[in-house]
Amino acid sequence: LSIGCRSFHELNFLEYLFEGVGEGGNNGKVYGVDLFNAFNDPRVTVDDAEQLKSVKDTGRLFDVVYSNNNLEHLMDPVSHFRNLVDVLKKEAYLVYVLPCWRDENAKPTLGHPNVIHCTKTYESFSRENINGFLSEMFDLANVSSEVQFDLLHHESDEVNAFCYFVAKITKCNS
User: What's the whole-number mean pLDDT along residues 46-55?
Assistant: First the structure.
């Protein structure tokens, strides 16, 4: 599932990357969710990344979620994580790319209402802070008893001002 997929190029890239990956319903098939479907791509569901209502209505479950520079645009990231749990397979991977603000005093703006505390500086994008952020999101979403997560990798790209992480999610009651 590509959240905030922007265009068919991202979906094509992800399909190539995950060809033959996954068991059951998806098996490498990539779906996207975005506020618009400008290219009328049948793989894209028009929805917001917080509620994921139309994605949930399909009944599809996903083993990989990819989100590239989307999370910081959400007004309510807690709802995003709460509803995301409903569309994950028993074991799933989250791959999130986030901007690094490079400023400890970064404040929300109209276009970026959510300045994620662990992405304010490269130094703050640490294993401990990402784990804290994910714990906070799952706790506030009231799903911390339903999932366990393991941060597998995190890295900062100081040249392009990005931070990214990969986490494995295991649903406890599936």
Answer: 94
